[in-house]
Design brief:
single chain, alpha/beta, Rossmann fold, seven-stranded parallel sheet, six-stranded parallel sheet
Length: 374
């Protein structure tokens, strides 16, 4: 009898454990599901303090001077991954080039995922607008060059696809595959113990993730002054010091919890009344999906992927990017309608699950490389 076998995949990424972000979480959760069902998905990543497990291959790396916790890996191809059926690059840069070279050398398909709008991060390299603009144009030109040399590009949302096709100008076919959420882990739990541990009372609004300037987290601090609630930030990043200074100047209860253990996250989301997400540059907004899975509605910027990830009036509300008054008003509205919005969020658990995403991923792979064996 013929049975379909999953192709062996080599995933190349410029960011991996111990750094916790949407890219590393997606790669790890996809790999766990892929291998849990008998497949093979190796990961090639910049060497770090993470102790490699079976099938994980670190390469030489150096610190990236402009961004803490980020390392630049040498574009090397470990010998152990040269017998794969397909290469999946989660970056267009250093290790993405290694993936491209491997795919061409062994003549297998190259799938590339567009995780991050690279041009939005040029401010970390320079604060001169003219130079930043030139860097943005260069990175988009380079991304267009790279993605047009892949066989298929994956994006996590339709707005990300539109940006890549209409603005960057990529001509390679682009498919939407959601990053997905582990709904077995992210589910409603009792948040009382989390609240007790961090001394949180009453109404609580929160955000977790990287504290980057491009995410406009200062808008949440400013909006907090007009909302009767405690605002908590989980995570860390280059903007944290400035955010803490801004919070001291605002008449609001704003607290910074720092990095939270991954095991704490369901309790964090469940302890919130509303999740706030002011970032206008998301390609999907994975933390918004995690909040939904825990039954927590989201108020976010009506920009980027959040314009689609948030179903306005159903799972939360949009606000006009940069409009603090509108942000505060939508936070108050979501708090007033919390119970209704929460039920709607929970109704979407199945459609945002990582199992569904990996099933879609398998379909994409098999369209490029159908494999059957006895």
């Amino acid at each position: 009898m013929l049975t379909t076998m999953r192709p062996a995949v080599a995933a190349f990424t410029d960011t991996y454990l111990p750094t916790v972000n949407g890219v590393t979480y997606t790669i790890r959760s996809w790999r766990d599901r892929w291998q849990g069902d008998g497949g093979r998905m190796d990961v090639v990543y910049p060497r770090s303090s993470h102790a490699p497990e079976n099938g994980e291959y670190p390469v030489k790396s150096v610190p990236f001077p402009f961004y803490d916790s980020y390392r630049v890996g040498a574009p090397q191809v470990p010998d152990a991954v040269t017998d794969v059926d397909l290469v999946h690059a989660h970056t267009a840069f250093a290790l993405g080039l290694a993936g491209l070279r491997l795919a061409r050398r062994i003549d297998v398909p190259l799938v590339a995922t567009y995780h991050t709008p690279t041009g939005e991060y040029t401010e970390y390299l320079t604060d001169v607008d003219r130079v930043a603009g030139a860097l943005t144009r260069f990175t988009e030109s380079y991304e267009r060059w790279y993605f047009d040399r892949s066989d298929l590009v994956i994006v996590p949302s339709e707005p990300a696809r539109d940006h890549l096709v209409d603005e960057v100008g990529v001509t390679t076919p682009v498919r939407v595959v959601s990053n997905g959420v582990d709904v077995e882990r992210f589910r409603p739990v009792d948040g009382a113990e989390f609240r007790d541990r961090y001394d949180l009372d009453g109404t609580v609004i929160g955000y977790t993730g990287r504290h980057g300037y491009e995410k406009r987290l200062h808008d949440l601090i400013d909006a907090a002054a007009d909302v009767d609630a405690t605002v908590v930030f989980g995570g860390d990043g280059p903007a944290r010091e400035d955010l803490e200074a801004r919070a001291e100047r605002v008449d609001a209860d704003v607290r910074f919890l720092g990095f939270l253990d991954r095991e704490e996250m369901p309790a964090f989301y469940s302890a919130l009344d509303v999740f706030a997400f002011p970032s206008p540059v998301e390609t999907q907004g994975l933390v918004a999906l995690e909040a939904y899975a825990c039954g927590t509605p989201v108020v976010g910027a009506d920009s980027g992927a959040l314009s689609q990830t948030i179903d306005d009036g159903t799972t939360g509300y949009h606000f006009e990017t940069g409009n603090v008054d509108d942000f505060a008003a939508k936070l108050r509205q979501a708090l007033d309608e919390r119970d209704r919005l929460s039920e709607n969020c929970l109704d979407r658990r199945d459609r945002i699950s990582v199992d569904r995403s990996v099933s879609d991923l398998e379909t994409v792979y098999e369209e490029l490389l159908p494999i059957a064996a006895v």
